Amino acid sequence: MDAKEISLNEKEVRPVVDLLNDYLANYHVHYQKLRGCHWNVKGQNFFTLHIKFEELYTNAQLTIDEIAERVLTLGKPPHSRFADYIKESSIKEIDTIGMKDLDMVDAILADMAQLIQMERELLEATEQAGDDGTNDMVNRFMQFKEKTTWMLRSFAGKK
Predict the structure, then answer these.
(1) pLDDT single digits (tens) 28-59
(2) Fewer CB in a 10 Å sphere around the end CB: N or C, the chain?
(3) How far apart are CA 8 and CA 2, in angstroms?
(4) How many domains are contained in the chain?
């Protein structure tokens, strides 16, 4: 498949594909961080956060699949090696063993802020490329993270 088969200009959509692959790498690191938080959360917020982290990593797993499939829809292969994810991701791995529950929330909030920034960049690139399909997908992902950020900040007692 190639971008022209869905009425997009391959040259114009190339920056979108590159950003999507970077986004995919960051999402994989974020996903694994959510899994680590889910597995290793302890303390009085265990029941609440254990469930919330599972909800978030399940959502992230579905999002990862949609991102990769969109890259394929645009006619390019998605990155699929952990080595590439670690190398390309601006989101960094953390060791969640022994981490305090609210520190985990802070780490997830920091990831979400970075992902939202990437989404805003993607929205600009998709608009320039006339790629409404990717724009709609990314906008939906961003709205989910914006709401989740508000909820996690409220949970943690932040402004």
Answers:
(1) 999 999 999 999 999 999 999 999 999 999 99
(2) C
(3) 9
(4) 1
Q: Is the dihedral of CA 88, 91, 92, 93 positive or negative?
A: negative
Evaluate whether 1 touches 9 at the Cβ level (below 8 Å): no
Within a domain: 130: yes
Q: How confident is the model at residue 124 (pLDDT cuts 50, 70, 90)?
A: very high
Q: Smallest Cα–Cα separation from 9: which of 128, 137, 135, 138?
A: 128
Yes or no: say if 112 and 149 are a contact pair by the CB < 8 Å rule.
yes
Q: How many CB atoms lie within 10 A of CB 88?
A: 16
Judge whether 76 lies within some domain.
yes
The pTM of this model reads 0.95
Q: What single DSSP character describes residue 130?
A: T
Would you state the pLDDT for residue 159?
A: 81
Spell out the residues 6+ positions from residue 109 whose beta carbon is closer than 8 angstroms to its own: 149, 152, 153, 156
In a domain, 127, yes or no: yes
